[in-house]
Amino acid sequence: MTEVAGLAPELAGAKEGQGQVPVASAGERFTSYDVEAFEVPGGREENWRFTPLKRLRGLHDGTAALDGAAAIEVGGAGGTADARSADAPRGVTVETVGRDDTRLGDGGVPADRVAAAAWSAFREATVVTLDGTPEPVTISVTGPGAGADAAVHLQLRTTAHTEATVVIEYRGSGTVADNVEVVLGDGSRLTVVITEEWAEDAVHVGAQHFSLGRDATVKATSVLLGGDLVRISPTVSYRGPGGDAELLGLGYADAGQHLEQRLFVDHAVPHCRSNVLHKNALQGAAGRPDAHTVWIGDVLIRAAAENTETFEFNRNLVLTEHARADSVPNLEIETGEIAGAGHASATGRFDDEQLFYLCSRGIPEDVARRLVVRGFFGEILNAITLPELRERLEAAIESELAISGV
Amino acid sequence: MSILEITDLHVSVTTDDGPKELLHGVDLTVRGGETHAIMGPNGSGKSTLAYAIAGHPRYEVIAGSVTLDGADVLEMSVDERARAGLFLAMQYPVEVPGVSMANFLRSAATAVRGEAPKLRTWVKEVKTAMSDLDIDPAFADRSVNEGFSGGEKKRHEVLQLSLLKPKIAILDETDSGLDVDALRVVSDGVNRYRAAGDVGVLLITHYTRILKHITPDVVHVFAGGRIVASGGADLANELEEHGYEKYAATGSGAEVAS
């Protein structure tokens, strides 16, 4: 159930250093804005080997035209009024910009072919700048519709010492490849919740580029619920010391669903911190393809990154048969001067003994399963400070449980 | 008054070599207000009896009947049995990571009582029950049985007994792994619950020491998957003196006969 590979960086698949031989370090991974700089993946490359390429609808090989349109709305947490209007919330600036906007790319550079394809294809980007202490902002991305595919580009920016909360909600049908840049100014604190609440048919391959200024703090929570295939690759980099990234996440995969989270935290400057906790629950069904989750956690502490403190943890709860959880934590340390570093991965079954114990106290089977799943995800959901959002996600998880009637 | 009737119960367990019969015809009646002790050597099938009554999926009833106040227990799911008034304090309580004891107890009480207990009175009720068993209130926030010592697990089993108020309680080796003080606390808890109502208790044990704290009305000797002798409390003393040897032959004889 649990697979632990050796050094498993992202380079394979790029023209330089590609092939069956893995590169020596995640730090050597290839990046480019140009889709053609990447070889078309065949499925055996380290960074594609868990992804069912056939289900990517051509995002990886250039056959997806990416000519559809995904709707992007920016509003307050409570409503959908477009914040591009004059009555935008105080401290929130929303711009639609062209490809030539010089700020694009501040967050990072694509590290796989789909991210580069999205970068090469988007026509307009949405840039949301947060300043001061604005009210929570919600950005909703709605898929282009069944049968269509679209490239999306989003950038969030915080000015120095801003404190803000942003929710990015993905929903709708179709196929989306995107890059989300999150560029934090010095000393700013950003809480961001990203929810994948897609319709059943949707395919989403996304790259998230977090770039933290000096003493900046980001607390990101990813919630992967919907879609046929969702593959998200967050990258965290630090532009100055004192940066602090907390990345929480949960995924709930049911029959046939593929949920993949591929993380790369690049500690290249001293005195930074990262903490990662990602939890998946899997619920398959007989006669259907497996429920599948993949978690890759690459953390690199470069020689210059003294006094780094990092911990990453992936936990998977397998609720039924017909489920597969792959988990590959990688920690590379190039300096002896670290404050602390650890990684862990645990995959366990919700077993008959637990079920028997709870039921033997009168608790009906469905309630017992819900108790266990709720308890499992509680740590992640409780960190979401927007009560309405948290309740909506809790309800969504409960209904996932109810669907298959396990 | 409640009555648990077990008649000619045959139970098998699934093993790698196919099903294996462990109980070869158990007859036993426990009435509310009575305490029955079942004593026997390891491997005689005592725990199998407990799990079969509770409905553990590993055990299959191949013949016989179990009824509670006339209702067919074997037709009920595990949770239905508990809601009907059966309770099994387990020898090895199961750890359930992620589910807090407080949440678990409230969910169980809600299920068994048919409605959620009122929060104010519930909090007080749990507090009192925990302090009766010398349980630190901090346990309420910990995951069910996770990282608990053997003694802490047993205390929590008796805590559940006192909160869920079953008609018939089966205590499966609740005394095992307890030191003298813990044994007294746990026994006092069971006795308090016995005194509070007409509960029927089926006390499964390997040793006589718990019977010095919880006095049984009837003692049964279990060997070879069935009851081979029954008597009053003094039968326990005899067992303590002479051991199970005398009954071992009867037990294995029964196995051959089956």
UniProtKB/TrEMBL annotation, chain A:
Domain of life where this protein originates: Bacteria
SUPFAM superfamilies, per the entry: Stabilizer of iron transporter SufD
Species per Swiss-Prot/TrEMBL record: Pseudonocardia asaccharolytica DSM 44247 = NBRC 16224
Residue numbers spanned by region Disordered: 1-22
Record-given protein name: Fe-S cluster assembly protein SufD
Family, as annotated: Belongs to the iron-sulfur cluster assembly SufBD family.
Domain SUF system FeS cluster assembly SufBD core stretches: 151-376
BP-aspect Gene Ontology terms: iron-sulfur cluster assembly
UniProtKB/TrEMBL annotation, chain B:
PROSITE patterns in the cross-refs: ABC_TRANSPORTER_2 (PS50893)
Keywords per UniProt: ATP-binding, Nucleotide-binding
Tagged with keyword Ubl conjugation: no
GO molecular function, one term: ATP hydrolysis activity
CDD domains in UniProt: ABC_FeS_Assembly
Organism domain of life: Bacteria
Gene3D superfamilies, A to Z: P-loop containing nucleotide triphosphate hydrolases
UniProt keyword Acetylation, yes or no: no
InterPro entries: AAA+_ATPase, ABC_transporter-like_ATP-bd, FeS-cluster_ATPase_SufC, P-loop_NTPase
Domain ABC transporter per the UniProt entry, residue ranges: 4-249
Annotated SUPFAM superfamilies: P-loop containing nucleoside triphosphate hydrolases
A Pfam entry, by short name: ABC_tran
UniProt-listed PANTHER family: ABC TRANSPORTER I FAMILY MEMBER 6, CHLOROPLASTIC (PTHR43204:SF1)
Family listed: Belongs to the ABC transporter superfamily. Ycf16 family.
NCBIfam families: sufC
Protein name: ABC transporter ATP-binding protein
